[in-house]
């Protein structure tokens, strides 16, 4: 299936810049089309986007056949124009064969090639009667790339440079757009954009640090939002560990404030939902560690939630609430991202998510201080809160262990395996609470993620 769009020069360049943010060494783009179709315009925008501030002039290689460029990441970019090629063997002499394996190649007039590169992406440009427009045909694999380009073009950000930002364990992707200002492009093919937009408006309406929405295409799962910067709290704390007491005080205060507001319409993360989620532990973690069983874990979670947590009214929980989803902005409110999965849950849920972080160690003294601060601000019963905190911490960590195993075995993402020992330690710390004795019994015999077991799991990962 082919994706087609009608593009002017700006949209053509926007598509090239969007593609430049995605391609990696070893990939080639075949630019097909007659003279004047815009092939060199596309290649020029692509190369200058890869080079960023170090962008060079990009002349047409019509007479030289090949021009090479470098980008700040150390990638070599080959721009070939084969219109005047007389003998395909010339390309071997120029080194194009090797470049196809190690660099990024943009090839105009690819029909002159003796053999088409494996897995190359063909982009066909066709002039239209209107001299300002052309039709661009792309492979299905670039459908979302084209959609992103058309979206930013329509939002008047088509001339911005596009650079990829680190994503998460989901299929969502993030890009920074830089032009007259900067913004973040969110691409969410999974259908959670409506929830993100709704929650953004709610949070901003109550004074919390969610990003402003600049433009959105809800059906396509695309949004352009305010750029809150790169100062992820996790990164800031790595650079300045002494900031941790203040930072986690701010987290406790933010949650206490959030929980004072009536809960918007959100899915309930109650006992049955928590029990259902923890099924990932038995489904993925235990088999990954060479074990079986785990059938008693989910019922124990549900029963303990009914006994320890169901009497407290639910509050708004952002759910993936931890230091990598918080932006440090000095005295300004903490920036919030990745809250599209917000739920109505027990007040301890987000606090344990932040304090028992799967990706980084939070000192026990900091954890105790933040819990005490939150309790002082909310007036909740300390004994019952701490029991519910332990339960939710155990449930969350067990679920995460299942997710990490699944990310490796199903999705080819092994990097999360390194976090397993820390998450297991959270499980053990929470099971030490006397109220969780039934859960501890249900987990008796479950194997710890030793280095040997983790490496065995890593070896079975279909890494992509």
Automatic annotation (TrEMBL):
Transmembrane segments: none annotated. One of its GO terms (biological process) is tRNA threonylcarbamoyladenosine modification. Residues 162-384 form the Aminoglycoside phosphotransferase domain. Keywords: ATP-binding, Cytoplasm, Magnesium, Metal-binding, Nucleotide-binding, tRNA processing. It is found in: Cytoplasm. One of its GO terms (cellular component) is cytoplasm. It comes from the Bacteria. Pfam families: APH, TsaE. The keyword Lipid metabolism does not apply. The keyword Metal-binding applies. GO terms for molecular function: ATP binding; metal ion binding. Belongs to the TsaE family. This is tRNA threonylcarbamoyladenosine biosynthesis protein TsaE. It comes from Paracoccus tibetensis.
